[in-house]
């Protein structure tokens, strides 16, 4: 969260008497450019996961998104519904599938450009892949990043997606829907 967002949020808390006036000073700092770039990613990641759930009309138990931000940015979205994992295009509702295909998936190139553009400006490695998870019962979400300079960045998207989907298919059988804990990533 940027300086002004933090500060005005604290002012609002003070006005609602949820915070003491003396706490305003705790928000009087400017984050490093790297922290600002990371905060942008977190904000965008939250939007991706929220929009993935909304696109499915909130009728899923968990949502998972593999975000590729390399040469051909993409979102691969799948859901836990009725005790099993399904890719977005396997959902039954044609309106939901159309919404995902026409509104959500086309955003991948602009997301990759904005996020990795910010990281490039601060001379930080960009994101090759990101994996996002959301659990509807607890509203918990989790993110895992594979940076461009990490050895796993060389893996093909298809390998990551296939193995992550496979691992999660087994794991969801033993994790309650209100676990409030992340499930596994591929690769760890």
Question: Could you give a quick summary of the protein structure above?
Answer:
The chain is an alpha+beta fold and 188 residues long. It has helices at residues 3-15, 33-55, 94-104, 108-121, 157-171; strands spanning 62-68, 74-81, 84-87, 127-135, 140-147.
Provide the fold topology.
Blueprint: H1 3-15, H2 33-55, E1 62-68, E2 74-81, E3 84-87, H3 94-104, H4 108-121, E4 127-135, E5 140-147, H5 157-171
Antiparallel strand pairs: 1-2, 1-4, 2-3, 4-5
Helix pairs in contact: 2-3, 2-4
Question: Care to describe what's here?
Answer:
- The chain is an alpha+beta fold and 188 residues long.
- It has 5 helices and 5 strands.
- It has a 5-stranded antiparallel sheet, with helices on both faces.
- A hairpin with a 4-residue loop joins strand 4 and strand 5.
- Helix 2 packs antiparallel against helix 3.
- The protein is globular.
Q: N- to C-terminal separation?
A: 28 Å
- According to DSSP, the number of beta strands is 5
- Count, helices: 5
Structural class: alpha+beta
Shape: globular
The share of residues in helices is 40-55%
Proportion of beta-strand residues: 15-25%
Cα gyration radius (Å)? 18 Å
Low-confidence stretches: none
Spatial order of strands in the largest sheet: 3-2-1-4-5
The major beta sheet can be summarized as: 5 strands, antiparallel
């Amino acid at each position: 969260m940027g300086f002004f967002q933090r500060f005005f949020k604290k002012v609002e808390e003070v006005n609602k008497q949820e915070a003491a006036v003396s706490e305003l000073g705790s928000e009087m700092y400017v984050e490093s450019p790297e922290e600002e770039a990371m905060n942008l990613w977190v904000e965008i990641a939250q939007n991706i996961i929220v929009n993935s759930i909304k696109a499915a009309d909130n009728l899923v138990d968990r949502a998972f998104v593999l975000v590729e931000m390399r040469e051909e940015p993409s979102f691969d979205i799948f859901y836990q519904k009725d005790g099993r994992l399904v890719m977005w295009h396997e959902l039954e509702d044609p309106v939901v599938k159309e919404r995902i295909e026409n509104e959500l998936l086309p955003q991948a190139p602009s997301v990759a450009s904005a996020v990795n553009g910010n990281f490039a400006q601060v001379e930080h490695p960009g994101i090759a892949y990101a994996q996002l998870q959301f659990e509807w019962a607890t509203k918990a979400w989790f993110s895992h990043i594979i940076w461009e300079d990490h050895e796993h960045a060389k893996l093909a998207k298809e390998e990551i997606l296939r193995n992550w989907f496979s691992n999660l298919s087994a794991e969801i059988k033993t994790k309650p829907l209100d676990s409030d804990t992340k499930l596994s990533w591929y690769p760890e």
